[in-house]
Amino acid sequence: MRSPGHAGRLDALAEPISAVVAFTRDSLAVVEVELRKLTRDPTEVFTRSVQPVLWLLVFGQVFGRARAIPTGPMRYLDFMTPGILAQSVLFTSIFYGIAIIWERDLGILQKLLVTPAYRGALVFGKATSAGVRGIAQTVIIYAVALALGIHLRFGARILGVLVAVVLGSAVFSTFSLVVACIVKTRERFMGIGQVLTMPLFFASNAIYPIDMMPSWLKVVARGNPLTYLVDALRSLMIEGGQSVFGLGIDLAVQLGALVVLVLVAARIYPTVAR
Q1: What Cα–Cα distance (Å) separates residue 63 from each residue in 81, 85, 170, 208, 252?
Q2: Which of the 8 DSSP states describes residue 269?
Q3: What angle do CA 270, 95, 158 make, to 5 degrees?
């Protein structure tokens, strides 16, 4: 016969396991709902791809010929391609929070909040679905890069690229959700989103090396999560590309930022319904 102490230990072990299972189930349910929205309107993915494609076709070609930005032995177009993929991830994810405001106005958010689902699972599920949208952007950028003759790496490194893109998409979409929970109106959210996107992009290593920046901007860039996403993508995507900070640090920063943002968003998520 099992001793009471042994049974107690089994019960104590079962509780966290059941909590993890429930959290995963709730998150996957949110992912399924969000992906259904995407399959019903796939044109959103392609319309959001226009801007990064233009950056590669116009900005990259012009500055590559001007040779105004030193990138060492790497061509400038090769150098900026990971930055443009990161830009696409940023611009797609940063406005993701507006969907929360729409859900509140339509009454969907109130229905979600009365369910027994973990608040963190609701947030994490939305972050994960944003990562899937990021994968779609990656496929498009890779296709354009191949057409332009950019020296891409393939094989197992593509899996690393997808992991970095999913993490980056999740980070910025969760940050967007936090902003949406605070401002609560579409007009304010759109204004703040437009204010944030370009500073985040230009205060990173997306289109020029950190070494070129003035001292104060270097400090800002090192605190910018987009910098670490670009650094990881550059080492994984491009032949001859190397990480300045180290791939492990790049991914750890992204993961740490995601954990912090999910915890913050889960805490304030119900306030957007008020």
Answers
A1: 13, 17, 31, 11, 32
A2: G
A3: 110
Tokens (6 digits) for 47 = 């319309």
The stretches in the chain having pLDDT less than 50 are 1, 6-8, 10-13
| Beta pairing partners, 13 | none
CA dist 110 → 107, 118, 242 (Å) = 6, 14, 47
Output DSSP code: residue 271. Answer: G
152, β-bridge pairs? 238
Distance linking the first and last C-alpha atoms of the chain: 54
Over the stretch 186-213, which tens digit does the pLDDT of each residue have? 788 888 888 888 899 999 999 889 988 8
User: Computed over its alpha carbons, how large is the radius of gyration of the chain?
Assistant: 21
Cα separation, 214 vs 55, whole angstroms: 24
Cα 126 from chain centroid?
A: 11
b/e string for 36-75 if b means 16 or more Cβ within 10 A? eeeeeeeeebeebbeebbebbeeebeebbeeeeeebeebb
Return the H-helix or E-strand segment holding 51.
Answer: helix 50-54
Strand partners, 238: 152
pTM: 0.85
Rounded Cα distance, 60 and 52, in Å = 10
Q: Which amino acid is at 34?
A: E
Distance CA(57)–CA(60), nearest Å, equals 6
**Would you say 235 and 241 are in contact if contact means Cβ atoms under 8 Å apart?**
yes
